[in-house]
Structure formats: C-alpha cells, structure tokens
Specification:
about 425 residues, alpha+beta, 8-stranded mixed β-sheet, 5-stranded mixed β-sheet, 15 helices, 16 strands, about 35% helix, binds adenosine-5'-triphosphate, binds magnesium ion
C-alpha cells in the first residue's frame, strides 16, 4: 500500500522549512516591535462559533469547513480562520477587563478549508494574523495595516500594493443592502443558486461571487461608496490620513468586499503585483469588525485585524525571485577516522554544541573522502579531522574552509580557537 500526503496538504521538507522559520522569526520580531503578544488557541472549536461569526452565507461556512462529530456527539470544526477563536478567547478570558486597551494579539498556525487545490490554495495552510481589540481609533487601523506591510517588506518584497475600502457602519450597510436587493432582484434568475440565496440574507456577498464575476449587473451594482453616512466617511478619511502619515500608499477600491460577514468600516487586501505570480494574487486580507465580540456574547469591543498565509508570502518571494541567500550553514564538521577517534569526536561534538556551535559528525562509518564531501555539502565553515595519531597526542587538525588554512590545535584549546 502506498500512502500519500492528503490532497491539498503538503510536507514542509528540510530544504524549505528553514525558510518558514525565517518568516516566523520576522513575524515575531515585527509583532514584538509593535507590541503585539502571541495567543495560541485550539485547532478546533464548536462549529457554531464559525457559523455565527464568519457567517452562514459565506463560502467558508457553506462549502469549506472540516466539520465532524466528536465522540460526545458535539459538532466540532477545524478552524478555517483565526479571528473567531481569538475573539472567543477575548470574551471568555475577559480581556476587555485588562488595564491596557486595546488588547493586541497575534497568532500563527494551521487553518483548514476544504477547497479545490491550486497554486497558493491549500486545504491546510498556515496563517499569521493580528487582532487589536478594544479600540475604534482610526490610528489603530493604520497601525495594523502598517504591521502587515512591514512583514512583507522585511521578507524583501517590493511588488506589493495595498487595496483599501470602507464598508461603513451598520446604517450605511443597511442602506446599501436595500439598494443591492433592488438592483439584483429583477435578474436574480440569471445568477448562481448561491447568489439567489444570498439575495435576501446578505446581498453584499453577491459582489464577492466567484461564479458570476462577469455578469454585467456586477459592474453596475450600487457602490458602497455612495451609501456611506457622514460618520463612516469621516472615519474612513481619518484612516487614510494616518496611512499618509505612515507613508503607506494605497489604492481605493469601492468594490473590495471581504469574504467574511463580520467586517465593517475599514477593509483591505494586500496583493502581489509581481508578473511571476499566478492567478491568485491576494496575500493578505483584513478589516474592522466592530460588533463581533457582542455577536458571541461579549461586551461591545471594536476590533481590527488581518490574516496572511505563509504559503502565499513564500510564493510571492519566489515570484519576485527574492530569496534568503544565507541558508544556515554548519559551523563545524567533525571528520573521524577509526573507532577511538569516533569516540573522542563524539565527546568533542557535545562540547562544541554546548558552546552553541552548529556541529555535525559522520554516523555512517564512511571514508575520509566521503566525510569531506558531506562537510562541503553542509557548507561547514570549519572541518576538524581526528585520526588515531590525533587521539594519542590530544590534538586535532583544524581546517578553515574559507581560506583553506590547516592548523594543528591542542584539544584543550580547540574551543578557544574556534570562538576567536
Ligand atoms: P481567497 O479569495 O483567495 O479565497 P479568502 O478571502 O478566502 O481568500 P481570507 O479568509 O481573507 O482569504 O484569508 C486571508 C489570507 O489567507 C488570504 O489573503 C490568503 O493569503 C490566505 N489564504 C486563504 N485561503 C488560503 C488557502 N486555501 N491556502 C493558502 N492560503 C490561503
Ligand atoms: Mg477563500
């Protein structure tokens, strides 16, 4: 029997996993500088949490969730996104009572969506996201957006653009909703069944439909921009003002509708503009979700956040032909010849590692030449050769692989010599 990795998932192999670690380090250091603290929530939650927050009419809830009954007959779902769980935890742990508001959190971890597999679209993928909950200051919107842009910049990306929209507050959205219903109702028969269902429940979702994208009524649909009330417009202006101050360029797109139900006011996406990128160019999506905490039984706590997948970040790097050149190399490779040397080498190896030096030795009982080849492949900076003579005289041969110089060094001086 042949076993394969499940469709839509992938093994992150050693040749690539170090890049993931790089991204994770960037994420951690940027969040640290912006004073966002990590939160880790379970990989599964009650199904109802996602139904209520993400929304019954969204693709995620209707088609993409991994839902199962546990042995206690409860409906559970592998998390398809991070915000619902973070806000659940915010409410459950009464973080609204923390002295310092807003509460600024970030997470990285696997998300699960039953999707058709294609480049940049997986069934298990890793999202990094942040949530700032407890403030509706437009400056925090700009901060969150700036943080996302900074992560991409630190990864070396330059071909990215920020798309910005405002979905307005409840009142604005209601007025727009009525206009949308009036617009689509006469021709709703020409749309997919999903859209027909969305018409009454959440007509805004029609604009985000991937099936009816090209229908002429899409282009002529009433724009949210025309339905923003005064306070929503004023809020949007302030967000843009703060982005200007931060020196962040954006493109206004009144048709940007995010895939989840809970967004209001600020909505944004960051896209790759690199020619090398495939059909899916969205790297990151986010927005404001005032009212979400109340939706799940908490107090009023306005929030804003985003999520990006590491998979698409790495794809964007490939598309821009950006890569980290300094693949981690070995500090020391120990070549040992013979049983006694091996034993001594093993002892030395422990000392080298304790001193923090990335070190390796041969475990395949190979000839000198093969061991030297390994050292080369692993890009060892130093090679230590130990044979019978060396063991008897308590010395090693130390070769600097950068300049080719070889010295005889007493074993007791080895660490000092290497740390120079
Ligand atoms: P799309 O329109 O591409 O389906 P989405 O609206 O479903 O995206 P969000 O729920 O906003 O995506 O998720 C935020 C980010 O997570 C996306 O911008 C993308 O980078 C990433 N993402 C979403 N789904 C996947 C997936 N199946 N595989 C890899 N990354 C994904
Ligand atoms: Mg999607």
């Amino acid at each position: 029997m042949n076993f394969k990795v499940p469709r839509g998932t992938q093994d992150i192999l050693p040749a690539v996993s170090w890049k993931w670690q790089r991204v994770e380090k960037i994420v951690q250091s940027v969040c640290d500088v912006y004073n966002y603290k990590e939160i880790r929530t379970p990989i599964f939650e009650q199904t109802e949490l996602f139904q209520r927050t993400v929304g019954d009419t969204t693709d995620i809830v209707q088609k993409e969730m991994y839902t199962f009954k546990d042995r206690g007959d409860r409906s559970m779902t592998l998390r398809p996104e991070g915000t619902a769980a973070v806000v659940r935890s915010f409410v459950e742990n009464k973080m609204f009572g923390y002295a310092d508001q807003p509460v600024k959190l970030y997470y990285t971890g696997p998300m699960f969506r039953y999707e058709r597999q294609q480049a940049g679209r997986y069934r298990q993928f890793v999202q990094f996201g942040v949530e700032a909950i407890g403030s509706d200051d437009p400056a925090i919107d700009a901060e969150v957006i700036e943080l996302a842009m900074t992560v991409y910049k630190r990864a070396g990306l330059s071909d990215i653009k920020l798309i910005l929209n405002s979905l307005g507050d409840k009142e604005s959205r209601h007025a727009h909703r009525e206009a949308l219903i009036a617009h689509f109702t006469p021709h709703i028969g020409e749309f997919c069944t999903d859209c027909q269902n969305r018409l009454e429940k959440n007509p805004l979702r029609i604009l985000d439909c991937k099936v009816d994208r090209e229908h002429p009524l899409m282009k002529s649909a009433p724009s949210l921009a025309d339905y923003l009330n005064e306070s929503s417009s004023a809020y949007f202006e302030k967000v843009k003002h703060y982005l200007d101050i931060a020196g962040i360029e954006y493109e206004y797109d009144p048709n940007l509708v995010r895939g989840l139900d809970y967004y209001n006011h600020t909505a944004f996406e960051i896209m790759s503009t690199s020619k090398g990128f495939g059909a899916i160019t969205t790297l990151c999506g986010g927005g404001r979700y005032n009212g979400l905490a109340e939706e799940i039984g908490g107090p009023s706590a306005p929030g804003i956040g985003f999520a990006m997948s590491i998979e698409r970040l790495l794809l964007a790097m490939e598309a821009e032909e950006k890569s980290w050149t300094d693949e981690p190399s070995l500090d020391v490779y120990l070549v040992t010849l013979g049983e006694a040397a091996r034993t001594k080498g093993f002892e030395l190896l422990g000392q080298l590692r304790e001193a923090g030096l990335r070190s390796e030795m041969d475990y395949m009982d190979r000839k000198m030449k093969a061991q030297m080849k390994s050292a080369d492949r692993l890009q060892a900076n130093y090679v230590i050769v130990i044979g019978e003579d060396e063991v008897n005289n308590n010395i090693v041969q130390l070769k600097n692989m950068t300049d080719g110089q070889q010295n005889q060094v007493a074993m007791e001086n080895l660490l000092d010599e290497l740390q120079k």
